[in-house]
Amino acid sequence: MKEFFDCTVGKDGKLPVGIANQIKEIVKNRAGKFLRFILTNEKTRTIPQNSWFHVVVKIISDFLRQQAKDQGNEKYYEINEETTKIWIKQTFLGYEEIKGERHLRKSRNLKTFEMAELWELLQKYFSPMGLNIPDPNQQGFIKDKVKTNEYQR
After folding, report:
1. How confident is the model over 39-84, as pLDDT tens digits?
2. Is-contact 133 139, C-beta < 8 A?
3. Does 149 score more than 50 pLDDT?
4. Cβ contact 130:67 at 8 Å
5. How far apart are CA 123 and CA 112, in angstroms?
6. Cα(63)–Cα(52) distance, rounded to whole angstroms?
7. Could you read off the pLDDT of 4-50 as tens digits, one per residue?
8. Is 86:104 a contact under the CB 8 Å cutoff?
9. Burial (CB count <10 Å: 0-12, 13-18, 19+), residue 52
Protein backbone atom coordinates (compact mmCIF):
# COMPACT_ATOMS: atom_id res chain seq x y z
CA MET A 1 0.00 0.00 0.00
CA LYS A 2 1.24 3.48 -0.86
CA GLU A 3 -0.60 6.61 0.09
CA PHE A 4 0.56 10.09 -0.91
CA PHE A 5 -0.72 13.29 0.59
CA ASP A 6 0.24 16.68 -0.77
CA CYS A 7 -0.61 19.65 1.37
CA THR A 8 0.58 22.91 2.81
CA VAL A 9 1.12 22.99 6.54
CA GLY A 10 -1.02 25.66 8.15
CA LYS A 11 0.45 28.73 9.83
CA ASP A 12 -0.43 27.04 13.11
CA GLY A 13 1.92 24.16 12.20
CA LYS A 14 -0.92 21.68 11.72
CA LEU A 15 -1.96 19.53 8.78
CA PRO A 16 -5.23 20.31 7.03
CA VAL A 17 -8.07 18.58 8.90
CA GLY A 18 -9.06 16.27 6.04
CA ILE A 19 -5.55 14.94 5.55
CA ALA A 20 -4.93 14.62 9.29
CA ASN A 21 -8.13 12.56 9.59
CA GLN A 22 -7.12 10.29 6.68
CA ILE A 23 -3.72 9.66 8.25
CA LYS A 24 -5.29 8.91 11.62
CA GLU A 25 -7.63 6.40 9.97
CA ILE A 26 -4.77 4.64 8.16
CA VAL A 27 -2.76 4.38 11.36
CA LYS A 28 -5.77 3.18 13.37
CA ASN A 29 -6.54 0.41 10.87
CA ARG A 30 -2.96 -0.86 10.91
CA ALA A 31 -2.30 -1.15 14.61
CA GLY A 32 0.70 -3.37 15.25
CA LYS A 33 1.84 -3.26 11.60
CA PHE A 34 4.90 -1.64 10.11
CA LEU A 35 4.44 1.74 8.42
CA ARG A 36 7.07 4.04 6.94
CA PHE A 37 6.48 7.76 6.84
CA ILE A 38 8.50 9.86 4.41
CA LEU A 39 8.20 13.61 4.64
CA THR A 40 9.62 15.72 1.84
CA ASN A 41 9.31 19.21 0.52
CA GLU A 42 10.23 18.12 -3.00
CA LYS A 43 7.57 19.04 -5.50
CA THR A 44 6.79 17.28 -8.74
CA ARG A 45 7.41 19.31 -11.85
CA THR A 46 5.10 22.24 -12.33
CA ILE A 47 2.68 22.93 -15.17
CA PRO A 48 4.92 25.76 -16.46
CA GLN A 49 7.87 23.33 -16.41
CA ASN A 50 5.81 20.81 -18.39
CA SER A 51 4.89 23.51 -20.90
CA TRP A 52 8.54 24.50 -21.13
CA PHE A 53 9.53 20.86 -21.71
CA HIS A 54 7.29 20.78 -24.79
CA VAL A 55 8.79 24.08 -25.98
CA VAL A 56 12.29 22.64 -25.62
CA VAL A 57 11.32 19.41 -27.40
CA LYS A 58 10.00 21.48 -30.32
CA ILE A 59 13.16 23.63 -30.45
CA ILE A 60 15.41 20.55 -30.42
CA SER A 61 13.26 18.65 -32.90
CA ASP A 62 13.29 21.53 -35.39
CA PHE A 63 17.06 21.91 -34.99
CA LEU A 64 17.83 18.20 -35.44
CA ARG A 65 15.47 17.89 -38.41
CA GLN A 66 17.06 20.87 -40.17
CA GLN A 67 20.52 19.56 -39.35
CA ALA A 68 19.63 16.18 -40.91
CA LYS A 69 18.24 17.90 -44.03
CA ASP A 70 21.38 20.02 -44.38
CA GLN A 71 23.53 16.89 -44.12
CA GLY A 72 21.50 15.17 -46.85
CA ASN A 73 19.98 12.57 -44.56
CA GLU A 74 17.09 11.13 -46.58
CA LYS A 75 15.32 10.05 -43.39
CA TYR A 76 15.17 13.56 -41.91
CA TYR A 77 11.37 13.25 -41.85
CA GLU A 78 11.64 10.65 -39.08
CA ILE A 79 12.79 13.37 -36.72
CA ASN A 80 9.75 14.90 -35.06
CA GLU A 81 8.63 15.97 -31.61
CA GLU A 82 7.57 12.47 -30.64
CA THR A 83 10.86 10.81 -31.56
CA THR A 84 12.85 13.68 -30.06
CA LYS A 85 10.98 13.43 -26.76
CA ILE A 86 11.73 9.69 -26.57
CA TRP A 87 15.40 10.33 -27.44
CA ILE A 88 15.68 12.99 -24.71
CA LYS A 89 14.16 10.62 -22.17
CA GLN A 90 16.44 7.74 -23.21
CA THR A 91 19.57 9.87 -23.29
CA PHE A 92 19.08 12.18 -20.32
CA LEU A 93 16.48 10.59 -18.03
CA GLY A 94 17.21 6.91 -18.50
CA TYR A 95 15.25 3.99 -17.17
CA GLU A 96 13.82 2.93 -13.83
CA GLU A 97 12.82 -0.47 -12.55
CA ILE A 98 9.13 -1.01 -11.87
CA LYS A 99 7.97 -4.40 -10.66
CA GLY A 100 11.12 -6.07 -11.96
CA GLU A 101 10.95 -4.47 -15.44
CA ARG A 102 12.85 -1.54 -16.87
CA HIS A 103 10.73 1.37 -18.02
CA LEU A 104 11.63 4.70 -19.57
CA ARG A 105 11.39 7.43 -16.92
CA LYS A 106 8.44 9.75 -17.36
CA SER A 107 8.94 13.50 -17.20
CA ARG A 108 5.70 13.86 -15.23
CA ASN A 109 7.34 12.05 -12.30
CA LEU A 110 10.33 14.37 -12.15
CA LYS A 111 10.80 16.78 -9.27
CA THR A 112 11.18 20.49 -9.91
CA PHE A 113 14.94 20.33 -9.30
CA GLU A 114 15.26 17.35 -11.71
CA MET A 115 13.57 19.38 -14.45
CA ALA A 116 16.04 22.22 -13.80
CA GLU A 117 18.90 19.71 -14.08
CA LEU A 118 17.45 18.45 -17.39
CA TRP A 119 17.46 21.99 -18.86
CA GLU A 120 21.07 22.39 -17.84
CA LEU A 121 22.07 19.05 -19.39
CA LEU A 122 20.28 19.90 -22.65
CA GLN A 123 21.89 23.34 -22.78
CA LYS A 124 25.36 21.85 -22.26
CA TYR A 125 24.74 19.13 -24.85
CA PHE A 126 23.44 21.38 -27.64
CA SER A 127 25.50 24.51 -27.05
CA PRO A 128 28.60 23.17 -28.87
CA MET A 129 26.36 22.35 -31.85
CA GLY A 130 25.20 25.95 -32.09
CA LEU A 131 21.75 25.53 -30.58
CA ASN A 132 20.96 27.91 -27.77
CA ILE A 133 18.20 26.55 -25.56
CA PRO A 134 16.94 29.54 -23.59
CA ASP A 135 16.75 29.28 -19.83
CA PRO A 136 13.14 28.70 -18.71
CA ASN A 137 13.52 31.59 -16.31
CA GLN A 138 14.64 33.98 -19.04
CA GLN A 139 12.18 36.79 -18.55
CA GLY A 140 9.31 36.75 -20.98
CA PHE A 141 10.62 34.00 -23.27
CA ILE A 142 8.51 31.10 -22.07
CA LYS A 143 5.45 33.24 -21.49
CA ASP A 144 5.65 34.72 -24.99
CA LYS A 145 6.34 31.41 -26.75
CA VAL A 146 3.69 29.46 -24.85
CA LYS A 147 1.10 32.23 -25.05
CA THR A 148 1.49 32.61 -28.83
CA ASN A 149 1.70 28.84 -29.30
CA GLU A 150 4.86 29.41 -31.33
CA TYR A 151 6.41 26.28 -29.86
CA GLN A 152 3.25 24.42 -28.93
CA ARG A 153 1.98 21.36 -30.73
Report:
1. 877 788 888 888 899 999 999 999 999 999 999 999 999 999 999 9
2. no
3. no
4. no
5. 17
6. 16
7. 788 888 899 998 999 899 999 989 988 899 988 888 777 888 888 88
8. yes
9. buried
Nearest to 92 by CA among 51, 48, 47, 53: 53
Q: What is the DSSP letter of 138?
A: S
Neighbours of 113 (CB within 10 A): 11
Residues facing 101 on adjacent strands: 98
Residues 6 or more apart whose Cβ sits within 8 Å of residue 122: 56, 60, 88, 92, 133
Question: Quick one: angle between helices 47-70 and 112-126, nearest 10?
Answer: 20
CA dihedral 25, 29, 33, 39 (to 10 degrees): -10
Residue 85 contacts residue 101 (beta carbons within 8 Å): no
CA distance to 44, 57, 137, per residue, from 113 (Å): 9, 18, 13
pLDDT in the model for residue 135: 80
What is d(CA 95, CA 15) in angstroms, rounded to the nearest whole number?
Answer: 35
